[in-house]
C-alpha cells in the first residue's frame, strides 16, 4: 500500500503535513503511510460537511437507507482485503478481524440502513387548556420529532478500526447528519477504506469526510471547529474530559464512550467453568484492549481458590503469537509504548503486594508487541492495578465475604461501563445488578444484545448508543404544537 490521502468534500486530497508510518504490531513492519492533516484541512472538512448538511438532512430516508445498504455490500465484496488490512493495522487475530471488525461493520451498516426508515415522530397526548392570560380555552396537540443534530465529529478508537467507526458513521448518516471522522492514529487506513466503500455506494460529496494525523492537534481541531454541532468520541477518560471541556465552551452535543474497569462479581453458587470462560475472554479478545472486559474479578470466599485456579489454567492454555497463524488466540497489543505501559502495571501490582499467578513475563517472540495473559490474586481495591484501566490481558482478583461487601467493592470505582454477575440464584443476580452503578450488567454472560443501550455511568462516559438508541443519540428533539 502506498501513501494514503485525506477524504474531504468527496475528493481524495494530498495532506499538508506529509505522511507517517502505520506499524503492524505483530511484525513491526510498515503497513502503509497515513496522511497528516493540517488544521486548515480539518476546517475545510468541517466546512464541506456543513455545506452538505442542508441537502443531506432533507434527503428521503429511503435514499439514505439505500446508500448505507450499498456500502455494506461493498464491504462484503471486499471482505477479505479489508480484514487483512485491519489485521495488519491492529494486530487482531484472523477470526477477530473478519468476524468482530469487518463483519460487525457490515452488520452495523445494514442495521442503520433499516434504522433510517424508523419513525422519528412520537405523538403526545392532547392537552386541554382553560382560558387564561395567554389565550382562549382550547385543545393543543403535540409531536416530539427527532431531527438531525448537524455536523458530527467522530473520533474513533484503535482497538476496532471497523466496528467502532461504523457504529458512529452509520447511525449519524441514517439520521441525516454529516460527519468528519478522525480515526485513531495507530490504525487509520481501515477508516479510509470505509470512506471508499461509502463513496462507491453514492454518498454525496461532503457528507463523509476523513482526516487523520499522528499529532493530537488534528483531533483538537476537529473538536474545536465552529461548524461542529456534536462530538462522538471513543477513547480514554482523560482525553474525553478535555473534549468535554471544549464542547462545553461551544455547547456542542456529546456522546462519550470512555474507559472501563468492569467488575465481575462471582458468588459461591456460580458455575465456576462458566465464570472462567467469560472472564477469560479478557486474556484473549483484542488482547485485553477492550473497555468492556471483566478485568476486576470480585470472588466470594467459597469459590475464590477454585476460580483463581481455573483462570490460571485458562491463561496457560492460550497460544500467544502471530495473529495470522490459525492456532493463535492472543495477538499483540497495539504498540511498543502500550506494551511498556501494561508491563509497568504488572510490575506495580507485584510491588503493591498482589500475588502473580500466571504470566508476568514478556513472551519470547522475535518481533512484535506481545504481552502474556497475566493473572493476579489476593488483590485489594486500594491497589492502583485494581483501580486503573490497564487495557491489556491482565486480570486482578479481589476476595469478598458477603453480597453487601461485593456490591460495595464493585461500586468503589471511578468507572461504570459494564459489570458482570455470576450466580446460580438468578433472582439474586438481578437484585445485585440493580444496585451496580454501571451502564450495563451481564448476568452469567459476557455476551451483548446489540439492540440494548450501551454507555457508561460515572467516568465511563455520557450518553447511550447501539440499536435505536444510537439514532436517538445522533438526533435533537423538536416539539411541534398546534391547536386541536
3D structure, described in words:
The chain is of the alpha/beta class. It has 15 helices and 22 strands. The chain has helices spanning 39-56, 61-77, 79-90, 94-115, 163-174, 189-200, 216-224, 237-250, 272-284, 301-317, 336-351, 384-387, 403-411, 426-435, 467-473, and strands at residues 6-8, 11-13, 19-23, 30-35, 121-129, 138-148, 151-155, 178-182, 208-210, 230-234, 253-257, 263-266, 296-300, 355-358, 374-377, 394-400, 415-416, 418-422, 440-443, 457-458, 461-462, 475-483. A 7-stranded mixed sheet has the order 14-15-16-13-12-18-19, sandwiched between helices. Helix 4 packs parallel to helix 5 (163-174). The model has no long low-confidence stretch (mean pLDDT 97).
Outline:
It contains 15 helices and 22 strands. With 484 residues, it is α/β, with parallel strands linked by helices.
List the helices and strands and how they pair.
Blueprint: E1 6-8, E2 11-13, E3 19-23, E4 30-35, H1 39-56, H2 61-77, H3 79-90, H4 94-115, E5 121-129, E6 138-148, E7 151-155, H5 163-174, E8 178-182, H6 189-200, E9 208-210, H7 216-224, E10 230-234, H8 237-250, E11 253-257, E12 263-266, H9 272-284, E13 296-300, H10 301-317, H11 336-351, E14 355-358, E15 374-377, H12 384-387, E16 394-400, H13 403-411, E17 415-416, E18 418-422, H14 426-435, E19 440-443, E20 457-458, E21 461-462, H15 467-473, E22 475-483
Parallel strand pairs: 7-8, 7-10, 8-9, 10-11, 12-13, 12-18, 13-16, 15-16, 18-19
Antiparallel strand pairs: 1-2, 3-4, 5-6, 6-22, 11-21, 14-15, 17-20
Amino acid at each position: 500500500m502506498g501513501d494514503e490521502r485525506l477524504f474531504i468534500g468527496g475528493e481524495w486530497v494530498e495532506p499538508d503535513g506529509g505522511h507517517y508510518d502505520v506499524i503492524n504490531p505483530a511484525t513491526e513492519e510498515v503497513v502503509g503511510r497515513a496522511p497528516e492533516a493540517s488544521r486548515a484541512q480539518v476546517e475545510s472538512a468541517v466546512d464541506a460537511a456543513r455545506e452538505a448538511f442542508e441537502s443531506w438532512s432533507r434527503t428521503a430516508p429511503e435514499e439514505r437507507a439505500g446508500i448505507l445498504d450499498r456500502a455494506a455490500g461493498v464491504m462484503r465484496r471486499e471482505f477479505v482485503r479489508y480484514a487483512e488490512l485491519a489485521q495488519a493495522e491492529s494486530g487482531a487475530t484472523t477470526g477477530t478481524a473478519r468476524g468482530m471488525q469487518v463483519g460487525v461493520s457490515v452488520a452495523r451498516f445494514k442495521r442503520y440502513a433499516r434504522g433510517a426508515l424508523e419513525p422519528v415522530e412520537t405523538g403526545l397526548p392532547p392537552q386541554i387548556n382553560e382560558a387564561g392570560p395567554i389565550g382562549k380555552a382550547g385543545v393543543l396537540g403535540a409531536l416530539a420529532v427527532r431531527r438531525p443534530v448537524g455536523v458530527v465529529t467522530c473520533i474513533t478508537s484503535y482497538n476496532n478500526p471497523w466496528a467502532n467507526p461504523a457504529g458512529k458513521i452509520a447511525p449519524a448518516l441514517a439520521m441525516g447528519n454529516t460527519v468528519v471522522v478522525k480515526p485513531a492514529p495507530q490504525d487509520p487506513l481501515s477508516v479510509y477504506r470505509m470512506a471508499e466503500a461509502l463513496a462507491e455506494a453514492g454518498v454525496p460529496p461532503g457528507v463523509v469526510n476523513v482526516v487523520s494525523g499522528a499529532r493530537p492537534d488534528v483531533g483538537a481541531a476537529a473538536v474545536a471547529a465552529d461548524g461542529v454541532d456534536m462530538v462522538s468520541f471513543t477513547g480514554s477518560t482523560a482525553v474525553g474530559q478535555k473534549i468535554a471541556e471544549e464542547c462545553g465552551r461551544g455547547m456542542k452535543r456529546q456522546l462519550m464512550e470512555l474507559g472501563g474497569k468492569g467488575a465481575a462479581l462471582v458468588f459461591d453458587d456460580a458455575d465456576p467453568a462458566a465464570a472462567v470462560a467469560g472472564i477469560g475472554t479478557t486474556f484473549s479478545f483484542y488482547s485485553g484492549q477492550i473497555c468492556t472486559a471483566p478485568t476486576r474479578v470480585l470472588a466470594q470466599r467459597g469459590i475464590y481458590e477454585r476460580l483463581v485456579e481455573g483462570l490460571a489454567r485458562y491463561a496457560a492454555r492460550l497460544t500467544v503469537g502471530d495473529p495470522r497463524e490459525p492456532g493463535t488466540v492472543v495477538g499483540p497489543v497495539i504498540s511498543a509504548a502500550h506494551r511498556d505501559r501494561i508491563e509497568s502495571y504488572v510490575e506495580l501490582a507485584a510491588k503493591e503486594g498482589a500475588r502473580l499467578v500466571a504470566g508476568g513475563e514478556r513472551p519470547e517472540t522475535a518481533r512484535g508487541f506481545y504481552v502474556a495473559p497475566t493473572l493476579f490474586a489476593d488483590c485489594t481495591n486500594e491497589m492502583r492495578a485494581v483501580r486503573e484501566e490497564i487495557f491489556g490481558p491482565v486480570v486482578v482478583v479481589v476476595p469478598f465475604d458477603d453480597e453487601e461487601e461485593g456490591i460495595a467493592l464493585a461500586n468503589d470505582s471511578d468507572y461504570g461501563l459494564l459489570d458482570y454477575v455470576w450466580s446460580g440464584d438468578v433472582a439474586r443476580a438481578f437484585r445485585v445488578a440493580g444496585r451496580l452503578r454501571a451502564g450495563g450488567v451481564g448476568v452469567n454472560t459476557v455476551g451483548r444484545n446489540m439492540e440494548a443501550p450501551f454507555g457508561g455511568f460515572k467516568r465511563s462516559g455520557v450518553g447511550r448508543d447501539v440499536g435505536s438508541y444510537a439514532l436517538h443519540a445522533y438526533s435533537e428533539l423538536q416539539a411541534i404544537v398546534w391547536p386541536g
